[in-house]
Amino acid sequence: MTTKISIVYDDQASKGFITGWGFSAVIEKDDNILLFDAGWDGIALLKNLEIAKFEPKKFSHIIISHKHWDHIGGLNAVLYQTNNPTVFVPSSISSRLKAEITKFAELREVIDVKAEVTSGIWTTPQMKTDIEDLQEISLLIQTKKGIVVVCGCSHPGLDKIIELANEYGKVHAVIGGFHGFEDLNYLKNIDVIIPCHCTKKKNDILVKYPKKSKKCHSGLVVTFE
Ligand SMILES: [Zn+2]
Ligand SMILES: [Zn+2]
């Protein structure tokens, strides 16, 4: 029942991977392979997926956290190669974007309650942000040591996302963009912290929690039992 999370799009990268602004990760759990967000550049994303040995046609689910360009830019390049996956989006995204996704995939709109993606994996409800018309969803994955939270930009506030995730179990890990999150003490009870692209306090987090934080980059693989 291992959960494996591979970072495939970030502004930092292992040798061979392409860097770019945005975020994307592949999550493998049981027989499911999920893509979370799609970075900005589809060509770069496809290249990184190829290097990491992922075939888009095997993606069972795609989760889009929010409508920003650095999370959806690579989506259509990937969708062309998929085989009718289920795509989860915040229901507040534009109807035009929904219509485009529907050409390739089964669309699931997340409203104000959490949505089960597959066994042991949920999205949060769509959460409000301080940007007008922007709502965001994050992913909650059940593991033996607690909930692993994967987030896009954390515009609703990382503390609010963690607070909500705590309702489903102890939060074990947070991975993704933390945006303007500043209250680093709030992370003291979390065992694994991986701040990615837009995290303003990325270096401060790595310095404050040297043992339990990791530098995010394409090519990074983390596993959870
Ligand atoms: Zn972002
Ligand atoms: Zn964003």
Description of the structure:
- Strand 12 (146-151), helix 5 (158-166) and strand 13 (171-176) form a beta-alpha-beta unit.
- The protein has helices at residues 42-51, 69-72, 75-79, 95-102, 158-166, 202-208; strands at residues 3-9, 24-29, 32-36, 61-63, 86-90, 106-110, 115-118, 121-123, 127-128, 135-136, 139-143, 146-151, 171-176, 192-195, 221-224.
- The protein is built from six helices and 15 strands.
- With 225 residues, it is α/β, with parallel strands linked by helices.
- It has a single domain, classed as Ribonuclease Z/Hydroxyacylglutathione hydrolase-like (Metallo-beta-lactamase, Chain A, 4-Layer Sandwich).
- One zinc ion is lined by residues 66, 68, 153, 155.
CATH superfamily: Ribonuclease Z/Hydroxyacylglutathione hydrolase-like
Straight-line N-to-C gap: 6 Å
For this entry, what is the oligomeric state of its chains?
single chain
Q: Round the Cα radius of gyration to an integer and report it.
A: 16 Å
Stretches where pLDDT is under 50 for at least 5 consecutive residues are none
The H/E string reads EEEHEHHEHEEEEEEEHEEHE
Q: Which ligands occur here?
A: zinc ion
Proportion of residues in helical segments: 10-25%
Corresponding CATH architecture: 4-Layer Sandwich
Total strands: the figure is 15
Overall residue-averaged pLDDT value: 97
Q: How much of the polypeptide forms β-strand, as a percent range?
A: 25-35%
C-alpha geometry: globular
CATH level 1 class label: Alpha Beta
Strand adjacency order, main sheet: 6-5-4-3-2-1-15
Biggest sheet, open or closed, and with what strands and sense?
7 strands, mixed
The CATH topology label is Metallo-beta-lactamase, Chain A
Secondary structure class reads alpha/beta
Number of helices in the DSSP assignment: 6
The structural domain count equals 1
